[in-house]
XdhC/CoxI family protein (Hymenobacter algoricola), 325 residues
Amino acid sequence: MQQPSQSRPRDLLVWQHAAAHMRAGRPVTLLCVLSSHGSSPGRQGFKMSVAADDSAGSIGGGIMEHKFVDLARARRREANPALVLRPQIHRREAPTDRSGMICSGEQVVLLFPLQPTDQPAVEACVRALEQLSAAYFTLSAAGLRVQPAPANLPSFAYHAGTDWHYAERLGFRDQVTIVGGGHVALALSRVLATLDFELTVLDDRPGLNTLALNSYAHHKRTVPYETLAREIPEGPHQFIVIMTFGYRPDEVALRQLLAHRVKYLGLMGSKAKIAELLGSLRASGCTAEDLARVHAPIGVPIQSRTPEEIAISVAAELIRVRNAQ
């Protein structure tokens, strides 16, 4: 049976849908959540492409999304090109801007009828997402723009007011590097492919069959573990999972990456192996502060045994770290 291909950024289908309708000369409207607070069903960056008879994406679902889709289609039937910028308050007692939902949060939703002049920018969004290239788009009263993304650009930025504007980095916000390409790494890659992570798998064994079979990773490389520090970037959206085939390569990998400033650094292994390895690092001069940053053993405690169960356990821990306030 053929394996599914690697995951693509969540918003690719939205931009592809918009581009296809624009190429065919059919009206299409972009809906986008510009900001969100509290228990809001649509988080910042959620978006939809809405045409007369179909749509792609979501701004959170429920009655609120239904109302905005209906509004987008009604305004298109009226040939009304004006955008709509509307707060949505998810509380029954709110005096204005009630969304019809009662989950207590708030969000700002933009209804943006795409114009023929926006098509080059829409196509640029599609290309950037398909090629995993660094780019970002901006939305404002002046229209839709796409530009190369500087390295330090935040994932989202919204400035409210009369001169409102919104910016978003295209593509995956978070990157996971798995060090070790064995059976657990293959199972973990399969799970992470559904969770909007850009995925890299590294191993030092040429011709490793489980690495060759891994169609879920966006990037796969065979590298010496002694070079990991320069192979893996640092940053607040970088997650590293070490799961090599043994104690010695685990130690080499961890020594390389212990000083890396990343969002998450985890090591798979039994409690006994972890205790011995960390003890060895401590004896060789590694600081308590650096060792405290290591998640080990990795994964939420669900008594996982099989590669697939371990993968779910590790993925759950990555979600917990990513979503922590």
Summary: The chain has a mean pLDDT of 90. The chain has two domains: 12-169, 174-323. The CA atoms of residues 18 and 256 lie 44 Å apart. Residues 12-169 form one domain.
